[in-house]
Fold:
Amino acid sequence: MNRYSIFSLLRNSVNYHQDWQRAWRSPDPKREYDVVIVGGGGHGLATAYYLAKECGISNVAVIEKGWIGGGNTGRNTTIVRSNYLYDESAGIYEHALKLWENLSQDLNYNVMFSPRGLLHLAHNVHDMQEIGRRGNAIRLNGIDSQFLTPAQVKEMVPFINLECRYPVMGALLQPRGGTARHDAVAWGYARAADAMGVDIIQNCEVQGFKIENNTVTGVETSRGSISAKKVGCVVAGHCSVLADMAGFRLPIESVPLQALVSEPIKPILDCVVMSGSVHAYISQSDKGELVIGAGSDLYNSYSQRGSFDVIEATVGPVVELYPIFSRMKMLRQWGGIVDVTVDRSPILTKTPVNNMFFNCGWGTGGFKATPGSGNVFAHSIARGDMHPIAEPFSMYRFISGALIDEGAAAAVAH
Ligand SMILES: Cc1cc2nc3c(=O)[nH]c(=O)nc-3n(C[C@H](O)[C@H](O)[C@H](O)COP(=O)(O)OP(=O)(O)OC[C@H]3O[C@@H](n4cnc5c(N)ncnc54)[C@H](O)[C@@H]3O)c2cc1C
Structure:
């Protein structure tokens, strides 16, 4: 793999940038791998990368039915944070945030991680109590978190309307939170994993599993049968479809979640602002577009698009809070299929089938966890037992009742 650097940029400029290597190969599937990862989103690619880099297992294939990053990884609003309520969540999201901080250097690929600060607004007494409880819990876990008065919010976002129908009573700030470039994350992991020998196989759908004596021995795909000693499924909104193929059920609902971006404008917003109660969250991309997250539809679907009423319910509060944006044009709107659990926490788990592992249930907020999730999932697959950070997120918690209820911390879909 050619290292990307200022020198390689200069060297290639001599030839008008005609000689760049392909970032990753496009191999035909081999007959057998040590590990097959189903799903070429950020989490699947990160798993493959850490399997090769940290666990010494590079005979790995990532099988993707479309193109890598074409699922929720390339459709999200790119918010990264670790300010969740419970210790278990602090464990995994903070592990991820620490990996984000050096990810561009680690992958030799600019994922444009931008820790620009993230505000959670509080609009009523309940919100104030929620951010009070969560803010203190976050600080007890050693994670950065500050309470802001309305005046301090105004200092950070001078054009915000504090006295609107949803008055701003305070906010919780995570200074290390921010955004990253979503598809660069998929491409960076793909390139680095490929360089260590991982085969990334696109346009190849997993249509079934080979299971003998309750142990997985491979996958049936649209490009033939592939044997594998272990299989990791990381397919987000389609996880219950894959679980069904393997003969068990997951406590997951798949719903469309949508987002929209405006026409680009000059820099105006240099932090991320979220508001759970009125469901408005907004940031500005490097291109200048306002990136606005909408809510999820209230019905199950695999349609990768959302309903119009959800857009209306999102844009209304945005305009109330930021009247300055009221005449902006929206350029694009899209949806992704998110895999939601009842406690709004993910599932990283062994399954009823031996050597088959699932990583899913990230719902509306898994982008931020990509490096941490891939890292602990790789170690779990390699050792055949869940990594301590992943352990509490087993699918069996829905039987034992040991739920990790992050409903409030995940209050708005992001
Ligand atoms: C509109 C929107 C906004 C969001 N905003 C945020 C945010 O701001 N911050 C945040 O942290 N999270 C956010 N999320 C959630 C986040 O995007 C996801 O949790 C995360 O990207 C999931 O990554 P993944 O790799 O698990 O799944 P995906 O990226 O969806 O990858 C799964 C892959 O599996 C493939 N696949 C499915 N079935 C098969 C099969 N049978 N065979 C082979 N391949 C298969 C799919 O094609 C897909 O590429 C948002 C999501 C949406 C939709």
About this structure: The chain has eleven helices and 18 strands.
